[in-house]
From TrEMBL:
It comes from the Eukaryota. Belongs to the LOR family. This is Protein LURP-one-related 13. InterPro entries: LOR, LOR_sf, Tubby-like_C. Signal peptide: none annotated.
Amino acid sequence: MANQDPNHSNTIPIIGPEFVSPQPTDLTIIGDTVKDTNGNKVFKVKTPLFGLHNKRILIDPNDSTIVTMKMKVTSKHDRWQVYRGSDLDDKIFTVKRSSTVQLKTRVEVFLKHNQTREASCDFTIKGRFMKRACTIYAGDSTKIIAQVHEGDERLVATIYPNVDCAFIVTLIFIFDLINMGGTGI
């Protein structure tokens, strides 16, 4: 299990409080499936068979939709919009590459209340495409809320206490989709 950091005491329930744990959480991502340390399926990302290929759906173990991720086709910054459930009228946040040309991938996250201005991001993801590793920060700060690294043909995510696991998993999949040109993990 991940080490708990006492500097991370604020609760961050972006998608829902039911996805927030007071303890650090380690998750393993193999393909489109996310499992906890006991091997239990926690989340899965589905790609609809019909319709647009630039859409992904995060579901729980009971196949209930948690969020819908949809890529904005006309965006030069690889912009993804995330909606609660399957309701495309209930946008939660937007994720986009910070610039079109990058040596290291930097992605910015703007919550619903911050999407019209986009002056400063609410979360930042920084990582290296070739290493399939990234760190997720609160805002544009050094406060880490989650880290991801590759290990044995899987991704391993350490999510800090009081951070929404569904939110982090959604960010990891979008980050990978941006890096892989839309083909994903």
